[in-house]
Amino acid sequence: AFVLSAAAAVSAADCNPTKASCPAIAGFTGPYSVDFSNNKALSSSDWIVAAYEDPFVKPSAQGLQFQLTNYTDAPNIWTSKYFLYGTVSVVMKSAPGKGVISSAVLMSDTLDEIDWEFSGNNFGKNVPTVQTNYYGKGIVGSYDRGTLPTVNGEMTTAFKNYTLVWKADSLTWMIDNKVVRTLKRSDTGDREHQYPQTPARFHLGAWDGGSPTSPDGTATWAGGRTDIHGFPYSSYVRSVSIIPDKHCAQYSYSDKSGSEGSVK
After folding, report:
1. In CATH terms, is domain 31-246 a member of 2.60.120.200?
2. Is 117 marked active-site?
């Protein structure tokens, strides 16, 4: 993305292990799945809602609704627990609207990040388009690691299954079980292009990248300035599945390197 995702902006870690000695964090001790269809409510023990955004995250017949009533809203949620490597899938319908961004992101406390980003007008493209991205320790460099795969069918009108397969040696992005990108760890480095390698939580949300207050570069990336008379805009999450490669009740860091080797 042109900017760090809403997950990074809205839910900065309480404690970044690269900057301080942090308390242990809770991990998944087994697979997790939830079906939000048929008005199922969000579990406060499994998910955290961004401050002041509770009114805009609500059950619906289609699934969990993330509603933007105006350009200042940014409904975002994230899991209360972490995992290091595994598979996460979300069945969702992204929000319509020029410049309106929906996101599904893995984010660690060290600011390692793995992204799905969706634009309500396909980032200004004339075909259905999604963005994949990754960062290590929040280092964006020259914003040169994103890709824009085309998608079979509109994402704002149909539910699709978006999957991240996060392994120690590779990252795979899949849409409806079709691989759209693979990143090998061996093709990354230890400076600008660091591989995500620390325990992460799964974030879901929506925000207005094309708002009147967004910088020009952000609005251009998002697909242009949003029609402020078109609100509300909503995305819907039908289900989430998380399968950690290893089960771990808690994680801690032995130093401030932010490396996989520091994770205990």
Report:
1. yes
2. yes
